[in-house]
Description:
The chain is 12% helix and 29% strand. By secondary structure, the protein is an alpha+beta fold. It has a seven-stranded antiparallel β-sheet with strand order 1-2-11-8-13-6-3, with helices on one face. Strands 7-12-9-10 form a four-stranded antiparallel β-sheet, with no helix packed on it. Strand 4 and strand 5 (84-88) form a beta hairpin. The longest helix has 14 residues, at 39-52. The protein binds succinic acid (SIN) and fe (ii) ion. Fe (ii) ion binds at residues 140, 142, 196.
Amino acid sequence: xxxxxxxxxxxxxxxxxxxxxxxxxxxxxxxxxxxxxxxxxxxxxxxxxxxxxxxxxxxxxxxxxxxxxxxxxxxxxxxxxxxxxxxxxxxxxxxxxxxxxxxxxxxxxxxxxxxxxxxxxxxxxxxxxxxxxxxxxxxxxxxxxxxxxxxxxxxxxxxxxxxxxxxxxxxxxxxxxxxxxxxxxxxxxxxxxxxxxxxxxxxxxxxxxxxxxxxxxxxxxxxxx
Length: 225
Ligand code: SIN
Ligand code: FE2
């Protein structure tokens, strides 16, 4: 058993990577510390993605700028503007295809999905979200994807966040779960359309990311792979 002190960070004492998966609902699992070992590689790859496709604050159909900075990699990227939400194969900011999905991204997503019982997850879209203190993501469903049989895999890096995780019914009150650096949430099957969001990020200082939280959300956005 590895001493817990190796996993200390300013945010407290995250569970060691061998912690038992935590069931959130039927089809939804929280894998605490799952991506700790490859976190530095994921952050280095994310920096390359951001260098090629800069973070930006999408405008919602209602006309407001989202508080998290966003970009994408993979064949398809999630975009929003006055005309709505959709997936696009080119970055509207640069006109170029989104950067390719880094190998370490696809690998961690597939391994986490497998651990949660979803074999052969081959994501074609990764949304990169960057939160500063105060940034949030209001409760929503991910339902712009063509393939709802594939799960969603979400990797948290940097400052901890409060993840709101509900059910497919909007009126059900969501659970509040703390997501720390290296934690991975997977939801699919009966939980695929669960409402979820991020509460306003609390300020803090993370040893690797300072005052930022970065989240990688993997999805199968086009048809089955
Ligand atoms: C998302 O729902 O797209 C991202 C959630 C998160 O930042 O953890
Ligand atoms: Fe989402």
